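Thread: uridine-5'-diphosphate-xylopyranose complex, take 2
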Amino acid sequence: MDEKLVKKRRIVLVPVPAQGHVTPIMQLGKALHSKGFSITVIQTQYNRVSSSKDFSDFNFLTIPGSLTDSDLKNLGPVQFLMKLNQACEASFKQCLGQILKEQGDDDEIACVIYDEYMSLSKAAAKEFQLPSVVFSTTSATAFLCRSVIAKVNADKFLIDMKDLELQDKLFPGLHPLRYKDLPTSAFGPLESIPRVYSETVNTGTASAVIINTANCLESSSLARLQRELQVPVYPIGPLHIAASAPSSLLEEDRSCIEWLNMQKPRSVIYISLGSLALMESKDTLEMAWGLSNSNQSFLWVIRPGSIPASEWTESLPEEFTKLVSERGYIVKWAPQMEVLKHPAVGGFWSHCGWNSTLESIGEGVPMICRPFTGDQKVNARYLENVWRIGVQLEGELEKEDVERAVKRLLVDEEGAYMRKRAIELKEKLESSVRSGGSSCSSLDDFINSFKDE
Ligand code: UDX
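Output below.
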């Protein structure tokens, strides 16, 4: 590490306690650790990352004042996060103050990197005059959308978003996104969106924004975002290729790898909706019918609690078990990155969370896109329309559409073209994190920016 950085070598990370946020911030920690920084993770009691052997070099601090699973259920993720920030603001400040008091001469804090939804970091970093940096776990395009929405007239925006006739039309200035692709949330009232977004895109006193993306995926959104924001934007992803950091909050069922080992190359569709998306019983049944009728094999992650009013799958009719038993394998949580790497997997049915999107492209696997909420809608549109490696299922989910989408991806020539394009993108992503690649250089630029502090 550079001489000037030796004194200030500790970086404090502040994750949102949810899988889709924890995974990339821990990968960022690993990438920075490999560059010589010490890493301290300040987390709440809710959904803690364990200091396992994979992170034995990291320092984990847990602050009091957390919320619970039932708070998440009652409030929904958006309100939950707002409350969590309020509940933990004072203890976070105290914790940061304590680190500063105890830090050695050779171990000063270089900066606090906080998830864009952990606004509690802003006031504390400001009070202690510590450099702070925003970390975005979504795409640059989703960030850009939030920035655009935060600036439009809120009343007009709310009227337009409720206008059914506008939904299929392009949203001005955000081509190729339509009104219905904008990252509004299914978890909270539309009315709160402009306020929540102006909070997240307000970088406050932060000196930079780090985004888990790569220039080859989103060059025009990145260029525009750089013009919109007052601080440097560093695209340093995909982090899962740059730095491995296993941080699953749920237990992975590895038996599915043994099952995949028995399947033919590229014959399986992998289905997973990430850590938060919910699935109506009716849609689950249509999926099962469509998958069964497609005659293709499938590995399906059904997360406990993802079907409303059901612990797991017990509320589904018996018909469901019959439909999936012949060609399907169901688990509660899978080692996703290993699954996507597996030669038997030919396609990924996804809710299009940004991590899943990057992981799928990173393995050259084409996708069936069925976004559930928020930024997933933006990613799905890009997968189908910009990168052209996905088929989006829109509107009511019907078994005939499911069957057709699975065949398009796994059987038809169209699927082979999508796979070819996905593999080309995979190669570009790999180059971007290699020495001399855009993301690798961006990470170096970020680190070098400390020298000017
Ligand atoms: C959400 C948003 O959808 C996402 O876009 C945002 O950036 C973070 O918050 P989530 O819905 O959980 O995240 O989806 P995703 O971003 O895809 O993250 C899920 C993670 O869980 C992935 O890293 C995936 O590999 C992992 N996973 C998922 C497993 O390890 N096993 C599984 O069975 C399913």
